[in-house]
Amino acid sequence: MKIYAERLIETVVDRTCDVCSESVMIDVAGHKYEECGELKAAWGYASKQDGDSYHLDLCESCFKVALFALRDHRRSVVMFDDEQKHPDDKFGLASE
Ligand SMILES: [Zn+2]
User: Fold this and answer.
1) What is the mean pLDDT of the chain?
2) Does residue 53 lie in a domain region?
């Protein structure tokens, strides 16, 4: 026998950037698309930050700020090392 009851179900109706607070939901022709970048880490025993977890939701603009900062840092790390790949405009792209 099936027994039925009404239940409230929570669903995600919006998601915002943790930096600028803008929505990462983009409306295209009446449909909402979630376009969100994420920066996350869960540090373990061998880390200096053992037990710390980070998770930031990022809009496209703030994601690029983080990406460009990391790309610039990579440039400074390999600046005088010709044996390592120097970052270009495709830095971080999954297809690279
Ligand atoms: Zn943002």
Assistant:
1) 93
2) yes
For residue 80, report the distance from its CA to the centre of ligand 1, in Å: 33
How many structural domains are present in the chain?
A: 1
Distance CA 18, CA 10 (A): 21
Establish if 73 belongs to a structural domain.
yes
* Helices assigned H by DSSP within the chain: 60-78
What's the 8 CA to ligand 1 centre distance in angstroms?
A: 31
Instruction: Identify whether 90 is part of a domain.
Output: no
86: pLDDT strictly greater than 90: no
What six digits make up the tokens of 63?
């994601």
Rounded to 5 degrees, φ, ψ at 61 are -65, -50
